[in-house]
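Backbones bend. We report:
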Amino acid sequence: MCSPPRSLYELRTCLEQSFPPSDERYGYFNLPKVVYPADPDFSSARRTTYGNTQPAVVVMAETADDVRNAVTCAAEAGYRISPRGRGHSFQALSNSNGYVVIDCSLLCKPEEFVFSHEEGDWILEGQKYIGTVYSGSGCTNAVMLAATAKEFAPEEGGLFALGACPSVGITGYLLGGGSGDVTPSTGWGSDDVLELRAVIWNGTNAEHITANKEENTDFFWASLGGGGGLGVITDIKTAIVQSPEPLPHEDRRKFLYIQNLEFHYFGEESKREGLESFRRFLYEKTEESHKFGGGGELSSQYFSLSGTYLGSADEFIESFGKNGLLQDISPFLGYHTIYQKLTSEADTVEDVCDGT
């Protein structure tokens, strides 16, 4: 079926009928429900982390009905749609030129989250998930982390799969695959998605569907890792995975943030030894290496790692040490030992938020 020719008049007429003009303001930027390029609020409404684009209109959706109405108006007027969570798309795909942007940030309503405490086996041997959460698609990593910490007691060890930046929206992260510091333990972000709700255009009208492993399966699987684009996601159900058990002598679960752990080379043999030790650790010692996730830098003099270890400082030092990944270099060479590179061992989420 061919799309109808674009008509700005039809688009505006439909949007005005669906969203009658009012003085109400919405969201962090205090915006009207519908914002056009000629409006004084447009520069704020089209804001995005990357790119400098010019959408046809921005609609601030509060509900699934708002999304459905916006999709209907766009489709019937011949316009394409850019769903936007938090605007972190590197390609600015959430804010495309000439598209109808449907901003879903107002769909994040923590007071309406639906948690369960069901349990089941998860990806790694002996691992389990300890619950699920149904949340709005416009939430950020920070919101989901805080909600999970509030719902699950510290001794339960609940993990929500999240990336490194607290302000990134969960929908783009999860649908794009989702890689973060806890990915080696929880699985990719898309692994943790159990169900989606979305508004799609079926050729004649906008439809709000549910997609999972049994219902609308094509939509479900195509959305996981493909980056979205098949519809406007309104809600996501994700698994809460349990963090690794503490060692017998540890009284509770801990995690460790590691900043710039450096392995220095002293000749080609040292370089080969260091890189091969890290390769073996990742691929042959998965029962240990899944507790560490992060990123790194490779140079001609050293490689460095930063990230999160799901365990205590003692456990980290023991694990990395026996796998040949720690060096105790004499301070007079200008390098620090591993013990000075451990920057923060946190017991609770509050500790991290307080910066301790």
Notes: Confidence is low (pLDDT under 50) at residues 329-344, 347-356. The chain is about 25% helix and 25% strand.
